[in-house]
Each structure stands twice: as C-alpha cells, then as structure tokens.
TrEMBL record, chain A:
One of its GO terms (molecular function) is metal ion binding. The keyword Transmembrane helix applies. The chain crosses the membrane at residues 275-292, 342-366, 386-409, 421-445, 451-471, 516-541, 619-638, 650-670, 682-701. GTP binds at residues 9-16, 34-38, 54-57, 114-117. Its main location: membrane. This is Ferrous iron transport protein B. Probable transporter of a GTP-driven Fe(2+) uptake system. It is found in: Cell inner membrane; Cell membrane. One of its GO terms (cellular component) is plasma membrane. Belongs to the TRAFAC class TrmE-Era-EngA-EngB-Septin-like GTPase superfamily. FeoB GTPase (TC 9.A.8) family. Keywords: Cell inner membrane, Cell membrane, GTP-binding, Ion transport, Iron, Iron transport, Magnesium, Membrane, Metal-binding, Nucleotide-binding, Transmembrane, Transmembrane helix, Transport. Coiled coil: none annotated.
From TrEMBL, chain B:
It comes from Dubosiella newyorkensis. This is Ferrous iron transport protein A. Keywords: Iron. SUPFAM superfamilies: C-terminal domain of transcriptional repressors (SSF50037). InterPro entries: Fe-transptr_FeoA-like, FeoA-like, FeoA_core_dom, Transcriptional_repressor_C. It comes from the Bacteria. Residues 1-71 form the Ferrous iron transporter FeoA-like domain.
Length: 724, 74
C-alpha cells in the first residue's frame, strides 16, 4: 500500500534539502490543482511505496499568503497519511508554533528535528516527544543523517491515530469540545472546531452551519473573549506560545546567550547598511553578469556559448551533417532543411545554454544563501514610490535571467493587485534571450557600444517604473501595497545539491524548448522562406524576397509602418518580430535565415552585420529593438502569465498592455527622434506621437483613483478570487 | 511607544500590536506577540530589521508604528 507523506515546515527550515535527500532524483514538479503554486513530489529512494509531497513553506495554518492557502487546503482536503514536520532546531520556538497547529489536524505527525548539529542547546528528545505526543527524530538534511530512522517512523505512524495534546486552558478546551459536537460527522475534528471558534471565514463558509448553531458558537466565543479580555485569535496565539515556552523550559537546556551578535548579524550590518546596501547589490549583480555574459577572460558563460556557437554548432555539427549529406547523396532540398533549417535554428538556441546555466547557478545561489530576502528589504522603500513593494523586486531580478521563473516568483506577493501588477511588468525586463537582439544591433549599427545594452536595461526598468505609476492610478490597482514583513533567514552556505537541482529545473526547460518548439518553428520557418510563387508557379525559391514568408511579412508589415519599418527590411523585421514570440532568441536567428547567411550565426550575428546595417538606420534599429524588448514576451512567458493570473481576462490585459505600451514607445521614439535627427519629415504620425506622449504624461501625473478612506482596510486580500 | 521610535540594539517588551486585521495575525504567526522582547538590529530610514525569538524579521515603517513597546529592559 502506498503511503502519502506530506513534507511541511517553516520556510527555510531545510525542507527542500531534506526533500532532495529523501527522493534523490526521483522527483516530479507540477502545480497544485487550480492554483499555480509549485508542487513537487517524489518517492523515497529506499522505499518506493512512500510518496513524499513537498508543501510550500508556511508559518501557520491561518492563511496569509497564497502558498499558505494551498498548503492548508491540501492538508485538510487531501488528507495525506502522515505529516512529516521539519523543524529547524536553531529556531525551535517559532517552528513548533506550526507543529502545534499540525497536531490538531486528524493526521499522524512525525517531527524531524533538523540542524541539531549547529545548535549548542541540549534537547531531550524523549521529553519533547511526550509533550507533543508524536515521534521526534533527529535528522541532518545536509549531511543526510537520520533519514532512515525518520522514514521508519513515517511508515509506523501512518496507520496510527494519536491522542492530541491539549494545550489550551480549561475553558477553551471545553468550548472546542462543545463545538466539535455541533459539527457534521465527517468534520468533527479538533482542527475544524478551532477554526470555527476562531471565526475563520473560509471554514465557516465550507461548513454552512445552522443559525442556532452559529449563535451558540458566537456565545462560546464571546464568553472566552470576556474571560481573557482579548480577541479570540490573540488568546489562542498567546496560549500556543505559552505551551511552547513551557515545553522548551522542560526539554531544552539553553546554552546560548541571548541577543549575541551572530555571523548573520555581522553580514547584515554591512549588506543592509543604509549607505552600502545599494552599491553592494549593484556590485554583486555586475559581477554575476560579467561572469555569465561579459567578455572578460573569466566570463565562463560567454566562453561556453562562444565554444558552442563557433565550434560545436559552427563547425562540428554542420561538418558532420555535411558529410552525412554527401555520403547519402541527400536531396538538396532536404539537405537545406537539415542544414539551414534545423541545425541553424536549434543550434542558435542551444548555443545560448551555457550563459543561461551560469546565470541560473548564480541566481540560485543568491536565493539559497538568504541574500534575496535582504534585497527585497533594501528595495522596499524605493519600490513603494511607484506602487510596488520590495517583494516585487525578486521577480524582476529573476527575470533578468528568464521571464518564466521571474513571473512564477511573483507568487510570494500576498496582495492580489500587487501580484498582478508585478506579473504585468516583469516581462519588460530584458531577459537572457533578449541579449542577442541587443548584441545584433549594438554590433551592426552602433559600433558595439556598450551603451546600447545599458540603455536596454534602463529602458526595461523605466518601463516597469512608468507602468507601475500609470497603472496604480487605475481603480483595479489603486491602494497602498501590502505592508512589508519578511523573515530574514540566517545566511548559510548554499548547498550544492539545491543549487544544482534548481539550476537544472530551470535550465532544462530551455533545452527542452530547443528540442520541441524551436525545432518545429525552424522547420516551418525554413519551409515558408524556401518556397514561394515564381512566375505564378509554386516552387523552391532562391531569392527569399519571393518566398511565402515575404508574402506573409509584407501583408502584415503595414502594422509597423508608423514605427519606421519601411522598405526592404519591413517584411523581415515583421517576420522576426512574430517569430520572436516563439522565443526571443529567434529574432536574431530569423534575421540570420532571412539575410541569407548559410552557416550558423554567432550569438550576436556578426556575419550579417553589414547586411543589417545597410537596411536599418540608427533610429529604425532602435525603434525595432525597443519594440521587441518591450512587446509581448515569448510563448513560454505568456504561458507563465496565464498560469499565474489564472484568469483569461487578466492574461489578455497583461499581454495587450505590453504590446500597446511597446508600440507607443517605439512610435514616439521613431517619429520624434527621427524628426530631431532630420531623418523623418513632419507627418501625420508625428502628431500621433505627440498625442501619445501627452497621453502617457497625463496618465503619469493625473490624480489617480483613490478609495474613500473609510473603505481602506488591509483585509482587502483577495486571495479568495485567486482560488476560485 | 511605537517601535519606530526605539533605539537600536536595546531590548524592549512588546505591549500591544494595534489594528485588527489579517496582518496582525500574520505578525503573530511570525512570532511577534505581546509579552515577547524585541530588539532593533538595523534601521534603514524607517524600515527595521528586528530580532525576536532568535529570528530576524524585516518590517516596514507602517508596521513598526503598530507595534507598541514598553520601557527598555536592561
């Protein structure tokens, strides 16, 4: 029989490390039904009959963030066979707070005391087990110790029904008992009774109690509130902590002197220092980008990508392909498909993998070591100025690598409208895949000026800021972002296996895309640009200006006429923009194919620079770049937006907003910039550009929607909407 | 007095957390409860990093104003 064990615990208690240690490589990642909080599960590597499900890290079973809602409804509704509660021993008090709540569910609990090795306190495990009435096992997730005895307990415990410890005072326990008798038979658990007593709106809705029962419960609640002269939630919280305090006095011999300056404190006093915080952060990011994407001797990402482009996909594979074609006398059309279509297209994406992987490694390290939480804190004050909170900074930061995990990182944001705003703007940040576009134009038109890449970042961030300010003034987003509160975990050395796991998870989706979407699109693109109508007959064309693709591009090119995409380049730019939706790196790849360069393009496409330079002027190049940086992201990121929004209307609003914003900005820059440079004459679209500019300024500076003061309450968390 | 006005590296007892909303519950779940002692470890303008129950928690200015503390503990 299969045993389902739910792995729970506070954030940063070592849960993920334990999960990786227990399951090894046998993991699956999915999403929870209905919502998009990630769900990982895997079987125990020494006993495949035990299925371990990794729940999001939570502080309590009173839901505050989306992840807490998910974890709670999973435990209550799915009813796993056993709860494996991971407790960070260095932080026993707060971790046991969750344990006291887990014990109230009708599910056996096994407590795993993690990180015992770093604590100097002496803990009496037997006594602790007696207090909690649950088995307690010492484990070290990092050193993989105690895992077997932990899992033995999980197996033993799964069949048992435990008597729960009574931790509240007499009158409250009595009330819980009375409420239990009022509940429907299947829900007569201590946990439901407690939630009813706490007046938990979601549970009350689920139970739909009769009027008389509700009155009885209200009376019980009021009696308790009067007795303790406080509201019920405060009373219960206080009594839980009282229970834990007594437990700790009995079981733990403290050695530690309180409030000593720890290593974490010392690091914090530097990295969160009022003056040094921002420069340090900029320096760290600069270092990461130099190593991943720079052009210095220690830029291992670039070295890897150069090798992949120049050697692997530049010589080795095309060479092999060439000899295969020669050997088998493959039909020239098929040979063209293999060489110009598949190898060139897929190679362009795969060549990019080394840089992406290096970037992901560093971002994973930042997340794992505890610095990310500090960054959110440092940025909070700044971000509040344009209507976002510091928590929105993490998604933006992650999006510099790839928009998909960036958008997914938005789920730690508690307030619904803050989260939506973050999702809508995350795509503006130039992700790794947009780098080749920047590289192409910087090289072809702007003499390799590093100002182009810098300006792309500035524009991305400015787009986020401008959008934040503009959108915040609409009713849907109006209101202060939720107050910022976040635990700052103690710094620790990132665990190699965690970093590798998360890098692989993210990196693999890139590689998978190259084998599927990019492969398919390369074939379609090759077909469309290789065939066309010559003198009225459908045939293989030599000049792709006669191809189906050119026909298609020309029929849509009028859309971008106001952005200055005119002449020979118009259809090519149009096609590249649309293929960019498949993946942003496709833009450069498409130019490579369209400018008739037979072999593999290097990442920035040096080989076609002269051809591109002949077709684009500085201002059209910039307009094209701007549009492609800001418009709708790739399909993968659009998919992520759809999943995180969990709502068709908001998905379309987000994508539509990005396109309209990109179009407006490109139009303004081309028309007004062109006019100033005497490149574009005054015309109808100059007026349109002026109108758009005034419109944006109006949206930026108008007095926004503001709620009646009396209506504002922090209770406005619309998590319900997300769930339904 | 609100935590916002307190000195860094001095221990204060929490007397009350004002307001009545889900944020207060969340603060409690994080360990910020009445009767517990709290220390400001660092302040960036009005945002604070505090230590409570041996954990570091970052709080913004609006929340710091809602935590009422008593006289400093020696």
């Amino acid at each position: 029989m299969e045993i389902k064990a739910a792995l729970t615990g506070n954030p940063n208690c070592g849960k993920t490390t334990l999960f990786n240690a227990l399951t090894g490589s046998k993991q699956r990642v999915g999403n929870w039904p209905g919502v998009t909080v990630e769900k990982k599960e895997g079987t125990y590597k020494n006993d495949p009959s035990i299925l371990i499900q990794d729940l999001p890290g939570i502080y309590s079973l009173s839901p505050y963030s989306l992840e807490e809602v998910v974890a709670r409804s999973y435990l209550v509704q799915e009813h796993p066979d056993v709860i494996l509660d991971v407790v960070d021993t260095s932080n026993l008090e707060r971790n046991l707070y969750l344990t006291t709540q887990l014990l109230e569910l009708d599910i056996p609990v096994v407590v795993g005391l993690n990180m015992m090795d770093i604590v100097e306190d002496k803990i009496d495990l037997k006594k602790l087990a007696r207090w909690l009435n649950a088995p307690v096992v010492e484990v070290s997730a990092l050193k993989k110790q105690g895992l077997e005895s932990l899992m033995k307990q999980v197996k033993n415990e799964s069949a048992k029904k435990e008597q729960k410890p009574f931790l509240f005072s007499r009158s409250i326990e009595d009330a819980i008992g009375s409420i239990q008798r009022l509940l429907p038979e299947t829900k007569q658990t201590r946990w439901y009774a407690l939630k009813v007593l706490e007046n938990d709106s979601r549970i009350l809705e689920e139970l739909s109690l009769s009027k008389t029962d509700q009155q009885k419960i209200t009376k019980l609640r009021e009696a308790i509130e009067n007795e303790f002269d406080d509201d019920i939630e405060s009373i219960l919280t206080a009594q839980r902590y009282d229970f834990i305090e007594k437990l700790i006095q009995d079981c733990v011999k403290r050695k530690r002197t309180k409030h000593a300056m720890s290593v974490s404190d010392r690091i914090d006093s530097i990295v969160t220092n009022r003056f040094l915080a921002l420069p340090i952060f900029v320096l760290i990011m600069y270092g990461i980008y130099t190593i991943a994407m720079g052009s210095t001797p220690f830029s291992i990402g670039t070295i890897g990508t150069d090798w992949a482009n120049d050697v692997l996909f530049g010589e080795t594979i095309p060479g092999m392909m060439g000899s295969v074609i020669q050997y088998f006398h493959i039909n020239p059309i098929l040979a063209s498909l293999l060489k110009d279509g598949i190898v060139a297209g897929v190679g362009a994406t795969l060549g990019f993998v080394p840089q992406i992987l290096v970037l992901f490694v560093f971002l994973s390290i930042l997340e794992d070591c505890g610095y990310m939480a500090r960054v959110a804190f440092i940025m909070d004050r700044l971000f509040r100025k344009f209507g976002l909170s510091g928590k929105s900074f993490i998604p933006l930061l992650v999006a510099t690598g790839c928009g998909v995990p960036g958008i997914m990182a938005s789920r730690t944001i508690e307030q619904d409208r803050d989260r939506k705003l973050t999702i809508m703007t995350t795509g503006f940040i130039p992700c790794g895949a947009k780098m080749p576009i920047i590289g192409l134009f910087a090289g072809a038109i702007f003499g390799n000026s590093s100002l182009v890449a810098t300006s792309a970042f500035v524009i991305g961030i400015a787009a986020v800021v401008v959008s934040g300010i503009m959108l915040k003034k609409f009713k849907a987003f109006a209101g202060e972002p939720a107050p910022f509160v976040m635990e700052l975990p103690a710094y620790h050395f990132p665990s190699l296996s965690n970093v590798l796991h998360s890098t692989w998870e993210r990196g693999f989706s890139f590689i998978k895309r190259a084998g599927t979407l990019i492969l398919l699109s390369s074939i379609v693109l090759w077909f469309l640009q290789s065939f066309g109508f010559v003198n009225g007959a459908f045939a293989f064309v030599d000049d792709n200006n006669n191809s189906l693709l050119a026909l298609l591009g020309r029929s849509l090119a009028w859309i971008f006429y106001p952005l200055g995409w005119v002449g020979d380049m118009a259809w090519k730019a149009t096609v590249a923009t649309f293929t960019g939706l498949i993946a942003k790196e496709e833009v450069v790849n498409t130019f490579g194919v369209l400018y008739n360069f037979g072999g593999e393009l290097s990442e920035a496409g040096n080989e076609i620079w002269t051809l591109v330079a002949a077709d684009f002027s500085a201002i059209t190049a910039y307009s094209f770049m701007l549009f492609n940086l800001l418009c709708a992201p790739c399909f993968a990121a659009m998919g992520a937006i759809k999943r995180e929004m969990n709502n068709a209307k908001w998905t379309w609003i987000s994508i539509g907003y990005m396109c309209v914003f990109a179009y407006s900005i490109s139009l303004i820059v081309y028309q007004l910039g062109g006019l100033l440079l005497h490149e574009v004459p005054f015309n109808f679209f100059t007026v349109v550009a002026l109108v758009l500019l005034v419109g944006i300024l109006y949206l930026l500076f108008r007095k926004g929607y503001s709620e009646d003061k009396s209506n504002i309450s922090v209770k406005d968390f619309s998590l319900n909407k997300v769930r339904s | 007095m609100p935590l916002s006005f307190c000195k860094v590296d001095v221990v204060y007892p929490i007397e009350k957390i004002t307001g009545k909303d889900s944020m207060r519950t969340h603060l409690r779940n994080l360990g910020i409860v009445e009767g517990e002692s709290i220390v400001i470890k660092n302040a960036i303008q009005k945002n604070l990093i505090v230590e409570i129950k041996g954990i570091r928690i970052a709080l913004d200015a609006t929340l710091a104003q809602r935590i009422m503390v008593g006289k400093e503990i020696q």
